[in-house]
Write a structure and sequence with these properties.
two-stranded antiparallel ribbon
Length: 215
């Protein structure tokens, strides 16, 4: 195994030694992703679909690497490359479907919120991780207490800050989140779509410069 892969393996081992929601794991995963981004194998292709696939692959990896990557079956970069190619293929297929169904471009109110949809096209691949980190940092800090203050009635724990972190950062399913915060799944998902998503969208709309725009 070459030096780069040995370094990646050590970063993975470090990350997975921490609890899933701990700041230590997040920092270790971020270091791992920075090394991956610097690899020539994942440099920007100047292709919007490729860059979106790269971003989504990193987003998924940050949640699943400790559970899904098996070092006994090959190097991390090889595994990452397979994940990236599969995601890129999915993006191409999705783009073809969208061109064929322009009339369905508007999402319904029940559609799953995806922060990746707010990433401006043409973003440089090296800034993708900074983009995601800025969004996650805002959720964690909640400087204006907008997310924390917006909670289900009589259940302050079921607030938009915790829901956003568990759903978007940790990647928990709604049933898991319901058990964690002590409210019914339907109540939580309704609060999420009616109250939390508009706050997240507003921040994303106001901070598009973080996603590659100049103004």
């Amino acid at each position: 195994m070459d030096e780069l892969n040995l370094h990646l393996q050590s970063l993975i081992q470090e990350a997975c030694s921490y609890p899933p929601t701990s700041p230590q794991r997040s920092k270790a995963i971020n270091r791992l992703l920075r090394v991956v981004l610097k690899s020539s194998r994942t440099e920007s292709k100047g292709n919007d679909l490729y860059e979106e696939a790269l971003y989504k692959t990193m987003f998924n990896l940050s949640k699943t690497v400790c559970d899904k990557y098996d070092p006994s079956r090959g190097s991390f970069l090889a595994w990452f490359g397979v994940c990236l190619r599969n995601q890129y293929r999915d993006e191409i297929r999705a783009a073809k479907r969208e061109r064929s169904h322009r009339q369905s471009v508007w999402q319904s109110d029940q559609a799953e919120f995806d922060p990746l949809e707010y990433v401006a096209s043409g973003i440089d691949a090296n800034s993708l991780l900074d983009t995601w980190e800025s969004f996650v940092q805002w959720i964690q800090d909640d400087p204006d207490r907008l997310l924390r203050a917006c909670h289900i009635e009589n259940n302050p724990k079921a607030n938009c800050q915790l829901l956003a972190y568990l759903r978007l950062v940790v990647g928990q399913e709604w049933q898991e989140i319901a058990a964690d915060v002590g409210s019914k799944r339907g109540v939580i998902s309704s609060h999420w779509s009616r109250k939390c998503e508009p706050i997240l969208r507003k921040w994303l709309d106001a901070n598009q410069k973080l996603f590659g725009e100049d103004n």
